[in-house]
Amino acid sequence: MPDSFSFDRAADFYDSTRDLPEPVATRGIQAILDVVGPGARILDVGTGTGRISVPLLKRGADLVGCDLSAKMMARLQVKFPAARLAQADASRLPFPVNYFDAVTTCHVMHLVGPWREALHEYRRVLKTGGVYVNARTEQEGESVHEQVRFFWKLRVDALGFVSQRPGVRDDKDMQEELRGMGAELKQVEVVRFTRSHSVREEIDRLGSRKFSHTWDIPQDVFAQGLRDLRAWAGREYADLDAPHAVTEAFILDIARFRKN
Ligand SMILES: C[S@@+](CC[C@H](N)C(=O)[O-])C[C@H]1O[C@@H](n2cnc3c(N)ncnc32)[C@H](O)[C@@H]1O
């Protein structure tokens, strides 16, 4: 089984690459609080620099964060000095059984090698009736982001490097596992919003190597892939700087365990 991806190397730049769009910062965060219920004791796994957990803490949530990366959490601690944090692997949580009312994750499970073990850990630390909430953002339709990523993956594969995500590859696999564990599943689309990106911005983001799917690609493959990507984009798009709108949805996948 591949290892998980610690984000130690990303701590210095992570916040400059991910924002929290205003509709998510307001309605998205409130929706998480509504699902977990008032006064819930929450564990945020893969809490990182606190993109989700700090807004929750600022609204008074009783939250503990954990992450493989101490460096990511050091950033969080600067933003919210009173935060309670633990360096821990999702698949070996240092918490007792029956302890939390809710476990949350956001953009984490694709990075967790032993992701099935992690789900069983979430159930173990949850109280009876507790809830696991996986928050995620999904793009709608065929965006330039998808087009650029699709060509990039084809090129890198053709250059002989098959990229492996260590964790969940398809949300359906995770839902199937949770269902098999006896969870009641529900999906809530909280809010939709539109953003604009140019093709050049998409390529530059990829070329920055700040996103985890680029980290393990050998340098020669990466450089050739990027040259090919730029050449393809030049042929494919009349104006690389034209903005392309994309609609995104903030979604909560909710799994409730009525009994343990
Ligand atoms: C993409 S970041 C997401 C951080 C935050 N949840 C957010 O939405 O911005 C993923 C985080 O998961 C952490 N991570 C990866 N594998 C993990 C594991 N097995 N156990 C705990 N944390 C893990 C990484 O170190 C990183 O901080």
Q: How would you describe this structure to a colleague?
A:
The protein is of the alpha/beta class and 260 residues long. It has a seven-stranded mixed sheet. The radius of gyration is 19 Å and the shape is globular. It has nine helices and seven strands; from the N terminus they run ααβαβαββαβααβααβ. α6 crosses α9 and α8 packs antiparallel against α9. 38% of the residues lie in helices and 24% in strands. The model has no long low-confidence stretch (mean pLDDT 94). S-adenosylmethionine (SAM) binds next to loops.
Order of strands, main sheet, comes to 3-2-1-4-5-7-6
Strand pairing plus helix content: what structural class?
alpha/beta
N-to-C span: 27 Å
Give a count of the beta strands, DSSP E runs of length 2 or more: 7
Mean pLDDT over the residues: 94
Unreliable residue runs: none
Shape summary: globular
Q: How many DSSP H or I helices? A: 9
The profile of the biggest β sheet is: 7 strands, mixed
Give the strand content: 15-25%
Rounded to the nearest angstrom, the radius of gyration is 19 Å
